[in-house]
Amino acid sequence: MRIAIAGAGAVGRSIAQELVSDGHQVMLIERDRAHFDPNSVEQAEWVQADACELSSLEDAGMQLCDVVIAATGDDKVNLVVSLLAKTEFAVRRVVARVNDPTNEWLFTESWGVDVAVSTPRLLAAMVEESVTIGDVVRLLTLRQGQANLVEITLDESTPFAGRAVSELTLPRDAALVTILRGGRVIVPQPDDTLEGGDELLFVTTAAVEQDIKKALGY
């Protein structure tokens, strides 16, 4: 894919390095000369421009991008970049970084955002996920609240140990997508059995998250 990243600070450069390593074409857009360092990600295309200016984005070729990532440290800039990418350039997928959790409500489809990533929220979720047994922990919001990736860890004495995945009575809008067991990642099949200590990942709507918990006896 061709991916544009607005903001070449530490976060933007790190994302670019990962994407380049995975074989994607990456363009970094940075206004601040202090952050403009093509040697830091040599495989990427670098553009020194204001990502909030329509003409600059057009000159950079944003209309050719499959994905735009608004990764600056300023939420206002990230919202403007997202809106321009979606409305002016019809970019298929727009991902935006949320710096201040109190602004999270703004990062919706109305502003052109398909996926909002809040670092504070993700860190909090990771902490909860590592210490919580039997509770639903929301790891990621997908499609602006239409679905969530959630995790629940089975305790060692779970009555579901040894029972097949097909025996789970899950709510309609929930799907078990992965079982994490020790160092293994298991794509669950109907005949696979559950074990105490399993971390179960579901894609679900917010409305039925607690129903998943009930289905697992919590």
Automatic annotation (TrEMBL):
Domain of life of the source: Bacteria
Ranges where the RCK C-terminal domain occurs: 137-218
Keywords, sorted A to Z: Ion transport, NAD, Potassium, Potassium transport, Transport
Pfam families: TrkA_C, TrkA_N
InterPro entries: K_uptake_TrkA, NAD(P)-bd_dom_sf, RCK_C, RCK_C_sf, RCK_N, Trk_Ktr_HKT_K-transport
Leader sequence segment: none
Domain RCK N-terminal, first and last residues per copy: 1-117
Entries under SUPFAM superfamilies matching the protein: NAD(P)-binding Rossmann-fold domains (SSF51735), TrkA C-terminal domain-like (SSF116726)
PANTHER family, per database record: POTASSIUM CHANNEL PROTEIN 2-RELATED-RELATED (PTHR43833), TRK SYSTEM POTASSIUM UPTAKE PROTEIN TRKA (PTHR43833:SF5)
The protein's name: Trk system potassium uptake protein TrkA
Lineage: Bacteria, Bacillati, Actinomycetota, Actinomycetes, Pseudonocardiales
